[in-house]
Amino acid sequence: MRGYPARRRCVISQAIGESAQTIVAVHQLAKTFRVGFWARPVAALRQVTFEMRRGESLGYLGPNGSGKTTSIKCMLGLIAPSAGQVALFGRPPSDPLARARVGFLAESPYFYDYLTPNEVLDYVAKLYGIDGPTRRKRSRALLGQVGLDHAAHRPLRGFSKGMLQRVGIAQSLIADPELLVWDEPLSGLDPVGRNEVRELMGELRRQGKSLFFSSHVLSDIESLCDAVCILDQGVAVAQGKLTDLLRADALESVAHLGLPDDGGAALLALQAVPLSHWEPLADGQRVVLPTAQVAELCRVAVQAGATLRELNPRRDSLEQLFLRKAVTRRQDSVGSPA
Amino acid sequence: MSAPHTTASGVVLRTSGPLAALLRMSAVASNTVREAGRAKLFYGLLGAAILLLAFSIVLSDLALVDQKARLVQSFGLAVIPLVCVATATLMGGLLLHQELDRKTLYAILPKPIARSEFLIGKFVGMAALLGIELGVLVLCWWGVLHLRGGTLTGALVRAFGLAYVELLVVTAVALVFSALSRPVLAGVLTLGVVVVGRTNYVLADLLAATKGVFVEVPAMRSLGKLLVAVVPDLSTFAVADPVLQGWVVPWAYCVSAALYGAAWVAACVVAAALLFERRDFT
Ligand SMILES: Nc1ncnc2c1ncn2[C@@H]1O[C@H](COP(=O)(O)OP(=O)(O)OP(=O)(O)O)[C@@H](O)[C@H]1O
Ligand SMILES: [Mg+2]
Predict the structure, then answer these.
(1) What is the pTM of this model?
(2) What's the rounded Cα separation, in Å, for the pair B78 and B83?
């Protein structure tokens, strides 16, 4: 990721999965469902392109119905895309060897309700060809890790949504996968549970796992991810490192100026720069200006004898970024309907 | 043997090779048996059949002394396969549908298992379940027969063996329909195949006759020919009547009937797997 400008990263090479570091490559993915008697087409995905590097923690972000779950199902081969390709570890999702390295948690997971968490994990572990003693050892450890050891021998029938979510998380980890694909892992959990899962995610990252998870809770993404992909109405509208994205889109900067003793003259000089906001501070002046004007501000400030104490790009919140991306795209598409 | 894959923290995964595939399919199969074993429908059908068998004790009291065992025999040969066919029709369609409906498949298919392996596992599980059901019922029936002074002859055992082949064919047909459509429709279609299949010879007779709608109306004639061609001839496996009249089914017949059944099962499982392979799980 380092050294690449954010926008360049959105361009995916045609040869998918070419790089050893790229573990997920989604290229121009589209999916149209046919609904109802007349098989009316519903475009769930139109243009989804993104890449994920090894060790990265990528947040998949988008409003309800933007196509997160649909694209995740395409990534795991549950749905065949109408167009475009997906590569997991350089292989198509239909290849079991690729899927063997992925741990998947479905949105609101559901399992055989006549099984106990132990039995679910045992069943799932068999599908990976894990031997008996290891199956038992890992089941016990994982159920402890997700806080379900007290319910390990109870059938899932009576489980709450949050408990099922924990079973889902445990089963996704059974084969020690390199990549975790979790669809809304934090939904359905109480505050304590959310915190536990957040900590688990941090721990998994420290172990070097790659994390791909969807959410529409922006603060979770901000605190857990180093990269994001934003989806809106079936289109990936932005992708990149969170810090780069937020900074690259910072259109304004904030400067903190120290004024000389005769502050009045300096202030007058500063009026020449088109500032969008200014406010006096105890020891100077705080100004907000378009980033393009920063050079001009510096020049004027030096001439007027003011000192530049601090200069920062005004960091968008993820929320602002998201809203701007989504709204801009919608306005664009009104101009030129697809 | 292909090499196992060891993960970063030392977990050994065996995902390739025939042994691993066998383990996966047996995991699906045993879960299928377990699922049915915890379903009320299965116990309902089993209970109903056992009640009917118990009823045959009462019924045989009405018969003449030398007819008692014979009545139990004919009762068992009629009722047991019928109940098992009902199980195959209902559960064969339902089991796959439940996986789709409850989205339990989302936890299974993203694992390194091929869809065809999953389907074969389901079929084997159903086959095992039906074997258990048939076995339990035959045991109960044997008890009743013993009580009424009858014996379990080799001819009777072979008749039940053929009934089991029929069950496998019906299950495979149910699997195709449930990979294709909704459970109610799948059940109805399977039932249709069972009815047409069991009376296949009637249709064949009608087609060979000199008069009747199947001879005179061209459309009906084509339909009749089509049905005879595409529906498995289940009457091959229904040997209850001749067995009761003292016919000992020859081994050669058993073998050819089993091969006929196996061919239908193979064709249906392949068709179901192909249909399943193309399906979107949304
Ligand atoms: N099986 C289906 N048939 C028809 N349309 C579908 C189907 N599945 C999804 N869609 C449509 O595709 C779009 C994307 O749905 P999807 O579930 O992927 O959204 P999402 O981003 O996961 O939303 P959420 O945040 O609510 O989970 C929606 O408009 C939805 O109605
Ligand atoms: Mg979703």
Answers:
(1) 0.83
(2) 9
